[in-house]
Amino acid sequence: MNSQVTERIKRKMATFSKGQKRIAQYILEHSDKVAFMTASKLGTTVGVSESTVVRFATEIGYAGYPELQKAVQEMIRNKMTSLQRLEMAANLHDPGHVLDNVLNHDIEVIRQTLEETCRHSFYRAAEAISEARKVYIIGARSSQALATFLSYYLNFIVENLVTINVTSTDEILEQMIRIDQNDAVIGISFPRYSTKVIKALDFASSRGAKVVAITDSAVSPLSESADYLLLARSDMASFVDTLVAPLSLINALIIAVAIKKKDEVADLFEKLEDIWDAYGVYEKVEDRSN
To answer: Pick from 116, 115, 126: which is nearest to 150 by CA?
Structure first.
């Protein structure tokens, strides 16, 4: 369990009333359920009032029950299996309101990302990428989709780009064998964190490369190797990871790097447009507004 939550509860256990002790014990034993219970539901489950649950949260140092619940959610994210996430989603979402619930949740995680991402790290990361001799990108499992998206657009901007094929750890490191202090690597991973991405960033750091980590928390294992830590919220909608905030952050990173290399990028796109037109890459759509 999250040591902070555990320590807060254990530190105060001797001072709790009988009702508060029932709450504390239930949180310690059933954190996966508490993470998505309302204060009212938790109170009913352990036999106390909703107000007792709210007072319990403030008693152990949280601003209220939502803050305590958020701490418990953070605690379990890297431990839940896909089946547990699916079961959680079935309990959390009313089938008739899934669209509204999920989209509103995504809006909230983007807002939180905007508040929590360090601007200094973001712009320094963009600078390191734009100045690197070669840029490596790695993402595994669900984060591989983010890595592919980032690679597609950075390939137009960065002259030497390597999208690492995520296979075995030794084969990943073989693809990075020439990496050094002139290069940069961008690693992307969210709970549950990929050991392959972590090892790749450790290797890059040991070779002196600039390491940009796109992840969800300052205590993410990716942060240990990172020169530039870019945080984006990635909460659980169910067995599906919510990756809209990381994608939005990546969009901003692509634009920031493109602006730094504006003249080169403009020249490239002028040539590409000629090629696309010549070979009919895109369907021409007539303006029918008139």
So the answer is: 126
